Amino acid sequence: MKELIGLSKEELSAELTALGEKSFRTKQLWHWLYHKGETDFDKMTSLSKEFRARLKACYTVTHPSIVTEQTSQDGTRKWLVSFADGKQVECVYIPEADRGAVCISTQVGCAQGCRFCHTGTQKMMRNLTAGEIVGQFMTARDSYGEWPTPTDETRYLSNIVVMGMGEPLYNFDNLKTALKILMDGDGIGISKRKITVSTAGMADRIPELADLGVKLAVSLHAPNDTLRSQIMPINRKYPLEKLMAACRAYQERSERRQFITMEYVMLKGVNDTPEHARQLMSLVNGLEVKFNLIPFHYWDGAPFQPSDADTIRRFAKMLEDKWFAAPIRRSRGEDIMAACGQLKSLKGTDTFKVE
Ligand code: SAH
Ligand code: SF4
Q1: Contact at 8 Å (CB) between 131 and 5?
Q2: How far is the centre of ligand 2, averaged over its atoms, from the C-alpha of 340 (Å)?
């Protein structure tokens, strides 16, 4: 049995052609899968009985199943979801007043091992398939009952941030297929302007994000190579010069010189001095950027402490004095370990010890 969720429109069409169906059937079936969110072939009533029977014999339609669901005092909701092979990831919904972003994962665990990140202490188990990436958003919609797809203005689950577990650009093909499905106007229809992909700095793939039209966030976290390589091993392979060149290429290739969000987690005594702020500003010289200062979210055994609130404010002010946008990110869902860098899905025995 083959899973239908996650097939691109072309792949779905090829499957149906092989079954001897006409091409308009692809559109009908797509509508059931991604506009209505239907998982039961018997309820796809606009399809003939024979067609449904044939689909049932060959295919499955699965949304990842919810293992646990927790809702924070601030409304943030986190799900631990499970896939066909029993592997699990976390995804999160972060509500604003009348809209909100679903934060999705791209890998089970993460191979990058950034020292401030809880996910990075887990073994990298495997890449998620395109269907598993799309499926997380569909499960979130199931949880809020947001089917059939509402109009852009009325939907509560309005944005997607690829900022969950894993490094998305090391699972690029599946990510690309998933994003195309999520953006498709005949189904889920999240516009490219409402999707942000965050990377730890896999420079080779960054410019290609401009072709997809999605926004880019870079987990920068350090303004020089020595420090960055210490806290983010990926910097040894893609040092700052390469990373900044990739960011320039992204900006040149994107329509309207899309700005880049530079994420910067504030680690006490490590990357939060005025000298770091100065280095940071000269590093991004020539790029259209917005900073996002993230208070470090502590987890058990983490080798860092969060910077003091005053230090963060002073750091922000230095950037703002030079006309950079530098909002301090309000932490969401910390009471349920749903905040940035806190996601994990394995029990203690499977995690690495942080030295
Ligand atoms: N792998 C991608 C996508 C994950 S995004 C990336 O690294 O960009 C998760 C975001 O949370 C990243 O900006 C990451 O650097 C940040 N983060 C990780 N651990 C954190 C922590 N303990 N506190 C605050 N932010 C953290
Ligand atoms: Fe992986 Fe991103 Fe965490 Fe680094 S910050 S370990 S790349 S998930």
Answers
A1: yes
A2: 10
Q: Which two tokens stand for residue 289?
A: 């950027």
Residues 26 and 96 placed together within one structural domain of the fold? no
Q: Is 90 in the pocket of ligand 2 (CB under 6 A)?
A: no
From the CB of 197, is ligand 2 less than 6 Å away?
Answer: no
The average confidence (pLDDT) of the chain is 93
Number of structural domains the chain divides into: 2
The answer to whether residue 329 sits within a structural domain is yes
Q: Tokens standing for 275?
A: 């000298």
0.70 surpassed by pTM: yes
Residue the block writes with tokens 């943030």: 76
Is 51 in the same domain as 113?
A: no
Kindly report the protein residue whose alpha carbon is nearest to atom 6 of ligand 2.
120
Range of the domain at 94: 65-350
Enclosing H/E stretch for 176 = helix 172-183
Do residues 182 and 188 make contact, with C-beta atoms less than 8 angstroms apart? yes
Per-residue pLDDT tens digits for 298-352: 988 999 999 999 999 999 999 999 999 999 988 888 778 777 777 766 543 333 3
% of the chain residues with pLDDT over 90: 85
- Do residues 56 and 72 share a domain? no
Mean pLDDT to the nearest integer, 48-62: 95
Beta bridge partners of 293: 264, 328
Q: How far is CA 131 from CA 5, 156, 176, 181, 213, in A?
A: 5, 22, 11, 9, 21
CA distance 177 to 158: 19
- Average pLDDT, integer, range 144-148: 96
Give the model's pLDDT for residue 346.
55
**Co-location of 13 and 82 in the same domain:** no
Mutate to test the pocket of ligand 2, among 89, 114, 219 (most ligand atoms within 8 A of CB): 114
Is 140 near ligand 2, meaning CB less than 6 Å away? no
Nearest ligand to the CA of 206 is: 1
**Environment class of 228 (CB within 10 Å of its CB; exposed 0-12, middle 13-18, buried 19+):** buried
If asked whether residues 52 and 196 sit together in one domain, one would say no
Percent of the chain with pLDDT over 70: 96
